[in-house]
Here is the input.
Amino acid sequence: MSILAGKKVVIIGDRDGIPGQAIEACAQSAGAEVVFSSTECFV
Here is the structure.
């Protein structure tokens, strides 16, 4: 059983680092429900 199974997650990725879509795919494969996902630019 995954640590994220059945959990709801909010994902904020970084444009110059790891984008939100990549983190979202990992979280979903671990059983999490993604309620918000975005990629932002932190300058």
Summary: Residues 20-29 form the longest helix (10 residues). The first strand starts at residue 8 and ends at 14. The chain is about 25% helix and 35% strand.
